[in-house]
Design a protein that fits this description.
With about 120 residues, the chain is mainly alpha-helical. Helices cover about 40% and strands about 5% of the residues.
């Protein structure tokens, strides 16, 4: 018998996320790209709760590692926020922009250290 979480998310995530062909890279990178596109296009609104990694992995018929890697990448990029004991959510940004370059005060954020390779 399916769990309540499984019934609530259903197989719709598999059709909602366009994971492209296997030639486009590893599955976790394709999933991160599909989720990033869903956020930037507005299909996933700020504050939206994402399914648990186990549930999404079951819906997509992939390993949980694939989902946790994609979620971790998008948390690192600032698209998602994750807290221990709470659901992963789409991060809300001032002005409604997820990847806007300006802060609330209007000044552009610049990193303290340049960590690009070769520098």
């Amino acid at each position: 018998m399916p769990s309540a979480d499984r019934e609530r998310t259903g197989p719709a995530w598999g059709t909602f996320l366009e994971l492209e062909s296997p030639a486009e890279g590893p599955l976790h990178a394709r999933l991160a790209r599909a989720l990033r596109t869903a956020v930037t296009s507005g299909r996933l609104a700020a504050g939206s709760t994402l399914p648990a990694s186990r549930v999404l992995a079951a819906d997509l018929r992939c390993s949980r590692w694939v989902v946790t890697e994609a979620y971790a990448q998008l948390v690192a990029e600032g698209y998602f926020e994750a807290r221990s004991g709470s659901a992963t959510r789409v991060r809300a940004r001032p002005g409604g922009s997820v990847r806007g370059g300006a802060r609330e005060g209007g000044d552009r954020w610049t990193p303290r250290y340049d960590l690009l390779p070769g520098r």
